[in-house]
């Protein structure tokens, strides 16, 4: 009986992974090239029962996890090692720890944007309202992550070449790589501003100002988290 249950669980897991592999690119392409559609789709799904939602396209939170939270862990972005190279936490951090920290850092931008929306709307922070805004943020920010990553490829290539050759990049190539990042920054800002425009039903000018304000809040939150992480690791190294 236990063996049958295991097989049944494996069957369900395999099918779920297959569905994810189909829905991830489908959803990502749709919300990247039609960002306004994401908000109308979310509104229509929100009217359904929770168990009936997101049948055709991937859930915003799952998409956010797959695109924004998990990749930095497998791409070698070890925030523990970046914060401390002297403690055992940095070299031996468990996958769960890295996943948790990556999720916390990835939550900074949604938290800042949602805070600005809640402040401007002067709405009480209800669980249902915050959940709807968070789902909206997951759809809004995921394309921003992808676009930023694509336009950062030249800079990544420079780092790889420098690592293997031991020589710095050609100045002209370095400048072109930096310039190539600019469209990614502009497009990322567009997705941010579009979120405020649609959620607050305002014009592009005000939405852009709100996006800038959210960026400042996001920077402050990131700075606080970084300082707390460094202090925590330093204390751990002192007591270890």
The total count of strands amounts to 0
Q: N-to-C terminal Cα separation, in Å?
A: 48 Å
- Count the DSSP helices: 12
* Tally of discrete structural domains: 1
Rg, Å, rounded: 21 Å
**Overall outline:** globular
Order of helices and strands: HHHHHHHHHHHH
- Which class do the helix and strand fractions yield? mainly alpha
Q: Please state roughly what percent of the residues sit in beta strands, choosing from under 5%, 5-15%, 15-25%, 25-35%, 35-45% or over 45%.
A: under 5%
Give the averaged pLDDT, no decimals: 79
- Major sheet attributes: none
Structure characterization notes:
The protein is mainly α and 240 residues long. The protein has one domain (2-239). Helix content is 82%, strand content 0%. Helix 3 packs parallel to helix 9 (127-151). The N and C termini lie far apart (48 Å). The model is unreliable at 77-92 (pLDDT under 50).
Can you summarize this structure?
This protein is mainly alpha-helical.
Write the layout of secondary structure elements.
Blueprint: H1 2-33, H2 35-46, H3 60-69, H4 71-74, H5 79-83, H6 88-92, H7 95-106, H8 108-121, H9 127-151, H10 153-165, H11 171-200, H12 204-239
Helix pairs in contact: 1-2, 1-9, 2-9, 3-9, 8-9, 8-11, 8-12, 9-11, 10-11, 11-12
Main attributes?
12 helices, mainly alpha, 240 residues, globular, single chain
């Amino acid at each position: 009986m236990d063996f049958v249950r295991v097989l049944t669980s494996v069957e369900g897991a395999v099918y779920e992974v297959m569905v994810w592999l189909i829905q991830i690119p489908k959803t990502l392409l749709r919300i990247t090239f039609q960002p306004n559609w994401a908000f109308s789709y979310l509104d229509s799904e929100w009217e359904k029962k929770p168990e009936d939602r997101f049948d055709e396209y991937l859930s915003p939170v799952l998409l956010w996890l797959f695109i924004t939270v998990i990749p930095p862990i497998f791409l070698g972005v070890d925030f523990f090692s970046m914060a401390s190279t002297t403690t055992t936490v940095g070299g031996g951090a468990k996958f769960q720890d890295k996943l948790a920290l990556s999720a916390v850092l990835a939550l900074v931008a949604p938290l800042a944007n949602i805070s600005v929306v809640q402040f401007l709307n002067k709405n009480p922070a209800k669980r249902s309202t915050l959940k709807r805004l968070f789902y909206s943020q997951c759809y809004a920010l995921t394309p921003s992550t992808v676009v930023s990553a694509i336009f950062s490829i030249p800079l990544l290539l420079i780092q790889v070449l420098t690592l293997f050759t031991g020589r710095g990049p050609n100045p002209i190539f370095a400048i072109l790589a930096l310039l190539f990042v600019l469209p990614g920054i502009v497009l990322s800002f567009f997705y941010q501003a579009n979120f405020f425009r649609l959620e607050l039903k305002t014009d592009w000018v005000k939405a852009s100002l709100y996006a800038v304000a959210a960026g400042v809040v996001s920077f402050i939150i990131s700075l606080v988290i970084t300082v707390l992480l460094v202090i925590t690791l330093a204390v751990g190294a002192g007591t270890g």
